[in-house]
Amino acid sequence: MIAVKDIHKSFGKVRAVRGVSFGAPDGKITGLLGPNGAGKSTTLRVLYTVLKPDQGSATIDGSDVVSDSLAARKRIGALPHGAGLYPHLTARENIAYYARLCGLDKQAIDERVADIIDLLEIGDFSDRRTKGFSHGQRTKVALARALVHNPQNVILDEPSNGLDVMATRSLRELILKLRNAGRCVLFSSHVMQEVAALCDDIIIIANGKVAIDDSVEGIRNRTGCDDLEDAFVRAIEMVEAG
Amino acid sequence: MRTLFTVFVKEIIDNFRDRRTLASALIMGPLFGPMLFAFVINLSIERSLDDLDRILELPVIGAEHAPNLIRFLRSHNIEVIDGPADRAAAIAAVTLGGQDVVMIVPEEFGQQLADAIPAKIELISDQANTQAERDARRVRSALTGYSQELATLRLVARGVNPLVLRPINVDEIDVSTPSGRSAILLGMMSYFFIFALLMGGMYLAIDTTAGERERGSLEPLLSLPVTRDQLMLGKIAATCVFMAVSLLLSLCSFFVALKFMPLEQLGMTPNFGPDVVVAAFFVLVPFTLLGASLMTLVALFTKSYKEAQTWLSIVLIAPTLPILIVSILTLRPQLEFMFVPSLSQHLLLVDMIKNEPVNMLHVVISVASTLALGAVLTWICARLYRREGLLG
What we know:
The complex is a heterodimer of chains A (242) and B (392). By secondary structure, chain A is α/β, with parallel strands linked by helices.
């Protein structure tokens, strides 16, 4: 369970996030939707503790991301935007490295790595060095790596970016599996259809603020638009109008 | 501790598979020194051998005015050839580098000699040109020999014992040993070792900082439930190991290379046996912590792999500075110098090569101060690694 309370974050003069609050419950898929530069990534980076908020707070299963960041990190698996692998290690070694860093013992590592390789269907290339992997292959390995320690909370920053149809489908199935297993899944995207098809709750962010936080139905009703894309544009216009 | 070890092992494996890191650690660093060294030594041996045997061609203006002098020069391996047309042409030729040295014998030379007044000879050379100056020196010393021979003859002709011209007989006794003479040239060996050591860890220092950021693998790594201090320490430890391996290889390659260098011809027998290799390794190995943390620290400030490479090349040269200053001022080893890393290692190594007793207090201070500085820099690296700006 993730709870975000009024976080602000500036980089120099750029105010990337100005007062974002929302909650992402367990057993639900929460989508962070917004145009480029809206503050989605910055919000997520605060949640997986690589950035500290200037103001406000956030908790992962009750652990504060600033004051108790180690405990918070134990409860999350994060896939940052454009996550890179170690090109001289095989996919399996990349995943096992993270498993070891997460403190799994030797036997558990082998089992978990094998499981996650099956789950993500990356067995065909799991023993090849990752140098020269396609974007889709890299994303899958990075995702496997993020999930290897079975985290309760999963944070994915634009996971479907640059994936082909088949890869997007299997990613969607994976996210649903995680939800059905009672996990809290929070992911960002700027692709409307994806969010609409997958999310239980949608948070539309624009200009570093939350425009709307509701279910798909709720958003349609509140904006008065049947088409989600129109609803999205309307919501952003509402924020920009103040 | 477990995290530290995991990071350490991963960095070792990862970089061991990287050809560039491996080449710089195992080939470039260890072989660069001995090869450059062999080149310099062979060059200087060749020069010192061929110098006196080589016939020097000396352009002379007015050779016909001093036939005896010309004969004397010829017996000293100096062959006289026709010089430029006149004095002005000679000066121009030497200035422009067409000639190295030109001798002018004036018309009145024979008459002045007969009258026993100092007979004038002009020698035109460019003293700033070292190659030309060697030839000029040979001519000058031949002329001095001729002058002395004439003086002796004159005294004998007047019934005076020529020994009156030598009131003092200076006898020099050189106590330098072949090992001691080696130290002058072999002093630069210590820098090659430090260079090899730093080279061995350079790409690792870049890869674990700027490289990891550029690849995008840093952010997911930092989102794992581990402290950044442990990540940093594991990375620095791996860099240290690469540096130590590179150092050891460099010492061994020098050991082998020295066997094939005709150093005896230069009057040198460096004391560089297996025992010195081992001792040198232990004197130099504390430098790995300092080198690894310094390189990591510099790389942490850079924005990209390329930028890190540029800055770290400067770090490669930095350890020469104290060595250079002390070499120029020709200072003897003192206690204070042992507090300066790279300089202390250099001085201790020179002592070993000279086969002089090594002061144990100096060794202790050198090791302790180098390790202490390395620890401070490592701590600073760990502090910087906690910063948010790290992600760029």
